[in-house]
Specification:
- By secondary structure, the protein is of the alpha+beta class.
- It is built from 20 helices and 21 strands.
- The strands form six sheets. Strands 2, 3, 4, 5, 10, 17 and 18 form a seven-stranded mixed sheet that branches. A five-stranded antiparallel sheet has the order 12-11-21-20-19, with helices on both faces. A three-stranded antiparallel sheet has the order 1-8-9.
- Strand 6 and strand 7 form a beta hairpin.
- Helix 9 packs antiparallel against helix 20.
- The radius of gyration is 34 Å and the shape is elongated.
């Protein structure tokens, strides 16, 4: 028989293998006991308890006085159950019970039965149940020994103020709405979502074998933080009047929409901000189905070519460079050939008015003269383009104003340093074509023209809780000495024969500039022949030399040959008159009014 041999190396190898296996088991055990401890505990916890997040009461939104409720939350209940272990007989019994208690029609009853048929562990059977109805259902269920029903507290957002048109709540585009998940959508509701919503509380229940929470076992794990109330700068009386004004203009002019904004030129507070058509924020689901574009606020979210309201910024560029004065004369030829005969611009009427002062050319809105001013900013085309572009960007075009509502867009301002402008680009820009802006940008820029050169921060929230919000200005953008001259120029614009009857408000001082811009037909690669964007931006004051309010109006895609049943100037006057006569809206008239120099002075 062969003798056995013992190999020390073999024994050592076996020991190493067993040692590695043992170490692996220890590491694995440590992984589960230490590394996965929290997850395993949480998993075991979930088998015994139910943890829910309960939204905090959402803050309300008030008008500028803090007394008129614009948005608030009402306590409602949603009815839930688990169908995971429910028999068909129980499902039928529950369907019949809810049909009776909630007065369901055949379609709604069938919907309840279909939900139960899914067998899901969490089913929402009904929403928006008033507390008294919930209590009646609870008592009836107890009396009939129907189990498995649970009521969860829910909050429904309500917008109690009626808007200026049928089927509208007040300030719908400005306020936005709150969806079923409790998230603010659009406007103030979305911008201030975290402030209004607060933080939800976390509660925990013991649960039974069917996964249902046991009564009287609720425990608060995290208390949450209540949402804060918000007070707006909006005056509800003015807001309602403005919504009625833009509705009338939109209908009369067969326009796609009409909008208006009223702002304090010194603080940036928005007193009113209206668009028609609007919608009912209490029934936002219907609007989502019918026309979700109504959710967008054109004041901040839609851009358009503004037209001749931009001529004021061409004047600013000329005055700042010293290349023009308001008394300087120009020849209005009705048309102007540019780029060596490859392009041409024309006045709206295609007829020249001859030699005229710049102030009068702006009042009569002569495109040819505005183009001559822009082309004369520098002997070099590139320098002239850079100068005009710099004025635009300094006045806030091409950037966000920072207004505190969701959805603001920057607009479009082409930079000549990136893509060189031709003469036609500079000429078109001088009267507001080839640039896209928002109404809130125009209001903010015009405020700087007349308030001494400060670019204000437009805002709609005056206070959060007890904290007053003071929006900072965006800095000085204009020599203060130019403001009286520019304000007086705008006053001169409204003095011409076809504007004066539409804009005179006895006892008040007004000034504005109008704009009528062509609209590009992208489908046919041409300009529409009967659709225009009409604008009027300016001020109204109780005292000569002191503008109190900035008013900007826009009539979008109005149908007409440059003349409308309700012109932009008339809409401007109506809105301005509504605003200036609101009791208590404005501070006392300044003791000493600023002088009003003659145009060209």
């Amino acid at each position: 028989m062969l003798g056995r041999t013992v190999s020390g190396a073999r024994l050592l190898s076996l020991l190493v293998v067993f040692g590695l296996l043992g170490s692996g088991l220890v590491v694995r055990l440590g992984y589960w006991q230490i590394g996965q401890h929290d997850r395993l505990v949480d998993s075991a916890h979930r088998q015994i308890y139910i943890r829910l997040e309960v939204p905090s009461k959402r803050g309300s939104i008030y008008d500028r006085s803090g007394t008129v409720v614009l948005a608030t939350s009402l306590i409602r209940n949603r009815l839930v159950t688990s169908a995971q272990r429910m028999t068909d007989a129980t499902k039928d019994e529950l369907t019949a019970f809810l049909t009776e208690m909630l007065t369901l029609d055949a379609t709604a009853a069938a919907d309840v039965r279909a939900k139960l048929a899914t067998g899901k562990p969490y089913i929402i059977l009904a929403r928006d149940i008033a507390p008294e109805t919930a209590e009646a259902i609870r008592q009836a269920a107890d009396a009939r020994h129907i189990t498995g029903l649970t009521f969860e507290t829910d909050a429904v957002r309500e917008y109690p103020q009626t808007g200026g048109g049928a089927g509208m709540s007040l300030g719908a585009q400005l306020l936005g709405f709150v969806n079923q998940a409790g998230a603010g959508q659009y406007g103030v509701e979305q911008f201030y979502q975290s402030t209004l919503a607060g933080k939800p509380s976390v509660v925990e229940f013991d649960k039974d074998a069917n996964g249902q929470p046991l009564a009287d076992t609720e425990r608060v794990v995290e208390p949450g933080v209540a949402g804060e109330d918000i007070r707006l700068t909006i005056d509800p009386g003015l807001q309602l009047a403005m919504e009625q004004e833009v509705m009338a203009a939109k209908i009369a002019d067969s326009a796609a929409s009409a909008s208006a904004v009223v702002m304090d030129p010194y603080t940036g507070e928005i007193y009113g901000e209206a668009t028609f058509p609007g919608y009912d924020a209490n029934d936002y689901a219907r609007t989502a189905t019918d026309d979700p574009s109504r959710f967008l606020d054109p004041i901040v979210s839609d851009v358009y070519e503004p037209g001749s309201v931009f001529k004021m910024f061409t004047v600013v560029a000329g005055l700042e460079t010293g290349t023009t004065t308001l008394d300087k004369t120009y020849k209005d030829t009705g048309s102007l050939v540019l780029d060596k005969g490859k392009a041409k611009i024309e006045d709206a009427d295609r007829h020249g008015m001859g030699t005229m002062r710049l102030a009068d050319a702006i009042a009569y809105s002569r495109n040819v003269v505005a183009a001559r001013v822009a082309l004369g900013l520098s002997p070099n085309l590139a320098d002239a383009a850079a100068t005009l572009h710099e004025v635009w960007t300094r006045m806030g075009f091409g950037s966000l104003t920072g207004i505190d509502v969701s959805g603001e867009v920057k607009g479009l301002v082409n930079d000549p340093a990136i893509s060189a402008w031709r003469q036609i680009d500079l000429a078109n820009g001088s009267f507001g074509q080839g640039v896209a802006v928002t109404p809130i940008q125009l209001a903010s820029a015009y405020a700087a023209l007349v308030n001494g050169g400060t670019l204000v921060q437009p805002h709609v929230v005056a206070a959060i809780g007890s904290r007053v919000i003071d929006a900072p200005s965006r800095g000085s953008v204009l020599d203060p000495s130019l403001s009286p001259m520019l304000a007086n120029l705008m006053n001169h614009v409204l003095s011409i024969p076809w504007y004066k009857p539409l804009t005179t408000v006895p006892g008040y001082w007004l000034g504005a500039k109008t704009g009528t811009a062509q609209i590009w037909d992208a489908k046919h690669h041409r300009w529409f022949t009967s659709l225009y964007n009409f604008s009027c931006v300016g001020f109204i004051g109780r005292t000569v030399g002191h503008p109190d309010l900035i008013v900007a109006v826009q009539i979008h895609r109005g149908i007409g040959q440059l003349v409308l049943p309700v012109a932009s100037t008339e809409l401007f006057r109506r809105v301005a008159t509504d605003a200036i006569t609101i009791p208590g809206l404005l501070p006392p008239v300044p003791a000493v009014a600023a002088p009003s120099p003659q145009v060209g002075g």
